[in-house]
């Protein structure tokens, strides 16, 4: 109550300051046509579109504030206090870390290998040390496994595929190519993470099944038959058994001692302990630990998953609890527009900063700022490969050693092969353009696919951005312009000659793209698709695009045009959008007023629904249109989620449906239905939905028992009690959240 | 499995869904009895999303130019699985070799969409609508291919099925299509009979909903749920020797085989596999492309083995939105290109042959000086499958605006 009063006070202040916007709004309000929906419907609509769904009491609060004033307040998120959500995020330390700090504390394979090979010191802090020890031990295990497999599959190749693959040359080639593979996978971070495992599994399987047949004839003489295969396997099994016992034992200790026990375990035991946490298991062991201890133990199993899990949890918790709802909606919008996939190599640790420092602070700012910030972000540079793109005539490509000329000085396009023995090798690896970013910059970030550019423009833009790279990407480094990678000479982009001026060329192209009418139109269209309808009225998009151009890409201004357009408030717009899975899940949790402690179970549900957070692999991001999200699979998932949520089967949260339904004591089904319709769907429920639930309440035995044509098919196993009990409040709430109207916003 | 256990399974399944009457043919379907007169011909489309590198998949190893264009990522002559003295399979496609030798597998090289876009999104859309360059078309060709086909003796919710969380463009349209992420949790409220009232209420809500989008999908969903419960495809385990690789694609095909074996009336089906967009460190005989190729070929080979005799009436076609640059780029990868390679697998396929005219890889032969040129429009390939295999002769309606002439088919179906 006090907080809402405070908010109201803030708003009054804002109004009394007589800033131009509210006055404008007041004027616009007079113009709203006579057929406009009632104030309550307007409040519901505004909440549907500007937030992740209404919470109990939100509609009343927006009405009390005044719908227009509330919209204006959402456009100024910096003035909205958001302590409640901040305190929910306090335990996620990675949110407040730089990329560099994240990499150091939650190392990736690169970092672990460097410590393993002695190139970097083992950390002295016992918690960090434990994380490294387990990962190093696992890497060494894997290495040994690979060796075993290689020996056996090399022996097997001729037996399996006699004709085409020549035996011994292939076998002797294997080592070289396998090393290359490892290097390549390490460098790229290997987006398709589990593919190599599949391969390994398949190899292992075929190896064991036919090892005996191949042994006599095929094993190359240089490779003596390996030591018994099951020896290390048996040892590992024993360790695991032992560790399981130890983990079981751990639970009996109070939290702090439990943590200390793990820290003082031997490396082998720590590995086994970490194994016991795999697949989200071992929650009992983690219970009661402080957040930092929990993080450390989870990191022992999978350091980088801690980073992405915290990011995912924070996103859900913000969507559910932040008071700055429009800012969160817009952060989601821009992240999706400038999509980066979390499972591509270094991006696992770069996304935290990408969202917090690049996207969110600019979500309602100027488009050009956002465009430049994404272009320079290590996350984007890595995701779309620009950090590797090298001008074909750049100093690096031509193999001119660093000190031969100054960074901007002239040079002769001649090679110096003798100078640097590694120059040739380097040149092979990184010596040319990579068009990936250039193309998506034009197609997805700015002009759109119909924006009138050619393949030549793509190539020229790629040249412009050569040298925009990352300073040590696997160590959390930042943006760096590397003149040696930059393509010299002028470029021609969209009919303009870009003078050679190094990093400035990229800035010039970004400026041109950000101020292009095509970009203004494309961004306006996407915003209108998000906030109005899948096929928004062209006249509205044109007006938004005009604002975009006139106000120099000011996103807040474009949204103001949108939120005060008659199209946004038209009857046909109300509940015209089908929720995405994220919107559905967040709105369901918000509607019930649930208290989420652990958001990972919700995140996993989103994965089942085809929308893993930060998990869109293509640069297009997720679709915001209904046709993608309306399918049999999706509907079943939503119905099941709704039922699971309201019956307390989604872990990690507290939810009191009885109270939501007007209890305690538990109300009868009919009054529960009426109360829940008001709370969950603002009492705007279709007759069909209402009647379907009433039918279940009123005539339980008749409609609930399966009406089968053939009596003989009745199973003796059926328990009549299960089908005659009238639905309780939690089932009714689940039915409402799974209803057609709750799928819309 | 004993009869009593079967009956128990079926009835407990029905009890979960409850409500409306289950058509009698379902009980027969559940026993796996083939319907007399039911058309069992089916077309399965596989989409390799992300633009697969056709030149490293079916390698033109006899072309010196191939090796010149790809100094660090080529597949060495001695590593390819030779097909015909000109082309060879990437070694990770070893699982395809028996299918090729048995002449069930045909290859069409330098095929794809004639549109020049190098946008993943647009190019995929064009190959799914079957109308390259025309964005106004909303429905997909695989959906349209069902128009005008003689109706099945019984309505089936599984006639058109996509393995995945959503119905892709290729299957969207006026024919009902069902998307299934996982057949094992394709029900309301789990396997607990308690869920029955909720399932009934949901069904009533969606059946009577005035929401046209959700109503249609809801109706299809509940039909499919009922059929699936009755047929219980879970009991059709993979055939001996059908070793599906772990992962989403293998799982999709394993479940598709279950649906087909359960005789649910599948006529057209779709599955996709991602992870082909290798701008950096594509790899050669090993590496990123090799890994995804193993997954791809092992899953398809397992699917083929699993289908057994049902393969005789099945045609599988693979496609990808465009190929990749003939030249490797600066990062041992490849950028977006043009023509690609297609695989056609099935009983009626005249396999063991590389179809299509090979355009060559000399600088002057490359499309825009950088990509493999296109000599076969992908619609010629799928058009032949739609016409000759599925029996839909109205190709003008399936591929509007494309002058498709049965006389010009590659004749890869017998």
Characterization of the model:
The complex is a heterodimer of chains A (745) and B (414). Chain A has 745 residues and is mainly α. Chain A has five domains: 2-74, no CATH class; 106-157 and 229-301, no CATH class; 320-514, no CATH class; 517-573; 581-706 and 718-743, no CATH class. Chain A is built from 40 helices and six strands. In chain A, the strands form three sheets. Chain A has a two-stranded antiparallel ribbon. Chain A is flat, with a radius of gyration of 30 Å. Mean pLDDT of chain A is 80; it is low at 11-36, 156-229, 409-429 and 702-723. Residues 1-38 of chain B have low confidence and may be disordered. The longest helix of chain B is centred in the middle third of the chain and has 20 residues, at 212-231. In chain B, helix 1 (3-17) runs antiparallel to helix 9 and helix 10 packs parallel to helix 11. Chain B is globular. By secondary structure, chain B is an alpha/beta fold. Classes of the chains: A mainly alpha (745), B alpha/beta (414). At the A-B interface, helix 10, helix 11, helix 24, helix 33 and helix 34 of A face helix 1, strand 3, helix 6, strand 7 and helix 8 of B.
Write the SSE topology:
The complex is a heterodimer of chains A (745) and B (414).
Chain A: H1 2-16, H2 20-31, H3 39-50, H4 58-65, H5 67-74, H6 83-89, H7 99-105, H8 109-116, H9 126-160, H10 167-188, H11 195-218, H12 230-250, H13 255-263, H14 267-276, H15 283-286, H16 291-301, H17 303-321, H18 325-337, H19 347-359, H20 367-376, H21 378-383, H22 395-398, H23 423-429, H24 436-445, H25 455-464, E1 468-470, E2 479-481, E3 491-493, E4 496-498, H26 503-514, H27 517-531, H28 538-550, H29 555-563, H30 566-569, H31 581-592, E5 595-596, H32 600-608, H33 626-629, H34 632-646, E6 653-654, H35 657-660, H36 669-681, H37 687-698, H38 700-704, H39 720-724, H40 729-737
Antiparallel strand pairs in A: 1-2, 3-4, 5-6
Helix pairs in contact in A: 3-4, 4-5, 6-17, 8-9, 9-10, 9-11, 9-14, 9-16, 12-14, 14-16, 16-17, 17-19, 17-31, 20-26, 24-25, 27-28, 28-29, 31-34, 34-40, 36-40
Chain B: H1 3-17, H2 24-30, E1 42-48, H3 54-57, E2 58-59, H4 64-69, E3 81-82, E4 88-89, H5 97-101, E5 105-112, H6 120-129, H7 141-144, E6 160-163, E7 178-180, H8 196-207, H9 212-231, H10 248-261, E8 268-273, H11 288-307, E9 314-320, E10 340-346, E11 354-355, E12 376-377, H12 378-389, H13 395-398
Parallel strand pairs in B: 1-8, 1-9, 5-11, 5-12, 6-7, 6-8
Antiparallel strand pairs in B: 2-4, 3-4, 5-10, 9-10
Helix pairs in contact in B: 1-9, 10-11
